[in-house]
From TrEMBL:
Keyword match Transferase: yes
Protein name as catalogued: alanine transaminase
GO molecular function list: L-alanine:2-oxoglutarate aminotransferase activity; pyridoxal phosphate binding
InterPro entries in UniProt: Ala_Aminotransferase (IPR051926), Aminotransferase_I/II_large (IPR004839), PyrdxlP-dep_Trfase (IPR015424), PyrdxlP-dep_Trfase_major (IPR015421), PyrdxlP-dep_Trfase_small (IPR015422)
Keywords: Aminotransferase, Pyridoxal phosphate, Transferase
Enzyme Commission (EC) number: 2.6.1.2
Species in which this protein is naturally found: Arthrobacter glacialis
Family to which the UniProt record says this protein belongs: Belongs to the class-I pyridoxal-phosphate-dependent aminotransferase family.
Domain of life per record: Bacteria
Enzyme class, first EC level, given as a word: transferase
Cofactor: pyridoxal 5'-phosphate
Domain Aminotransferase class I/classII large: 36-395
PANTHER family: GLUTAMATE-PYRUVATE AMINOTRANSFERASE ALAA
Length: 405
């Protein structure tokens, strides 16, 4: 019989945060082991529940959410997205500029597929959320990673970005607040990136899914407030993180800037949106209630709030481990600790994570899964309660005290 193999389009597509390590963890669970999963930013398993108002509103709309919606999404939800951005000072987004999706992930892939020809380049941060790199590759493009500087709050290195722009560069990705580092970019950094996009006629892809999860004095700058009318900006956000409803798959893409000049590209987005028919209808009904109601995330990120407390405990305990250091997260749900290569001469951070899993029954994500350039980091999710974090980081410390790579 003929052998059936995967498409060559997948040869450069990786998504290791749900790769071999997770498969090993699932195998161990099937054998009866209890695994503490600190690899995925999924609030529900850690006791974070959806706000009651969202649940009630979705239940109320279920009898009317059985058919296809407009391919862009229901009008009331898209209007709520527009009105939200108006409160943020963005006036050039209209209802027909908003596409609702089965999470942001679907819309990222859709927007890149509509733009890229084979060999086109897209600038993506390193470290990154790996879906961006995978989606560029799947669309036939070439991901080009620009450095974020750990010694400068993990902010993007503007000189490195400028040096990597070529005639083939079509777009630049901004992940702010950043996953996996927790960095929140100040205005001058966002401005510098937009200025480069303006100079070189690049599309800006702004991933802002963590925009409401901010700590201390961090301020989120919506990229579209800077791009204005002369830089095409694709803004991605949704409900999964701030409203703790990842499984509802409620995300959106909002398009701003010179839309007339991008009409052909936007027609391509519309074509692909039509082909997938629509996003799931019940999840769309959560958007208006979420954006217009009480913002319960604020109770979690202020002093005394659970997310804030967990972040602080994880930061303190990780930095107390000899040979481990981490910048404090100003946003999102993660820390990205560094393992001093003089203390831990690790050649494969994936093997390090596997050894930790087998020894301590703790699942983390290795740094190179986020396209980081060296095997000397890992990402830790700060969603578990304080007691579980204390136990987990204590076990990581015990493991490292005797670890011989």
């Amino acid at each position: 019989m003929a052998e059936f193999t995967q498409s060559t389009k997948l040869h450069n597509v990786l998504y290791d945060i749900r790769g071999p390590l997770l498969q090993k963890a699932q195998q161990m669970e099937a054998e009866g082991h209890r695994i503490l999963k600190l690899n995925i930013g999924n609030p529900a398993p850690f006791g974070f529940e959806a706000p009651d108002a969202i649940l009630v509103d979705m239940i109320r709309h279920l009898p009317h959410a059985q058919g296809y919606t407009d391919s862009r999404g229901i009008f009331s939800a898209r209007t709520a997205v527009v009105q939200y951005y108006q409160t943020r000072g963005i006036q050039n987004i209209h209802v027909d500029d908003v596409y609702l999706g089965n999470g942001v992930s679907e819309l990222i892939t859709l927007s890149l597929m509509a733009l890229l020809n084979n060999g086109d380049e897209v600038l993506i941060p390193t470290p990154d959320y790996p879906l961006w790199t995978a989606s560029v590759s799947l669309a036939g493009g070439r991901p080009v990673h620009y450095l974020c500087d750990e010694d400068n709050e993990w902010w993007p290195d503007l000189e490195d970005i400028a040096a990597k722009i070529t005639p083939k560069t079509k777009g630049i990705v901004i992940i702010n607040p950043n996953n996996p580092t927790g960095a929140v970019y100040p205005k001058h950094i966002v401005q510098g990136m937009v200025d480069l996009a303006r100079k070189h006629d690049l599309v800006v892809f702004s991933d802002e899914i963590y925009e409401k999860i901010l700590y201390d004095d961090a301020e989120h700058i919506n990229t579209a407030t800077i791009t204005g009318e002369d830089v095409l900006c694709m803004t991605f956000s949704g409900l999964s993180k701030a409203y703790r409803i990842c499984g509802y798959r409620s995300g959106w893409l909002a398009i701003s800037g010179p839309k007339a000049d991008a009409a052909d590209y936007l027609e391509g987005i519309n074509l692909l949106a039509n082909m997938r028919l629509c996003a799931n209808a019940p999840g769309q009904h959560a958007i208006q209630t979420a954006l217009g109601g009480h913002q319960s995330i604020e109770d979690l990120i202020l002093p005394g709030g659970r997310l804030r407390e967990q972040r602080d405990v994880a930061y303190k305990l990780l930095n107390e481990i000899p040979g481990v250091s981490t910048n404090q997260a100003k946003g999102a749900l993660y820390l990205f600790p560094k393992l001093d290569p003089e203390v831990y001469p690790i050649k494969s951070d994936e093997k390090f994570a596997l050894d930790l899993l087998e020894s301590q029954k703790i699942l983390i994500s290795h740094g190179t899964a986020f396209n980081w350039v060296r095997p000397d980091h890992f990402r830790l999710v700060t969603l578990p309660n304080v007691l579980d974090l204390e136990e987990a980081i204590g076990r990581i410390a015990d493991f490292l005290s005797t670890y011989k790579p």
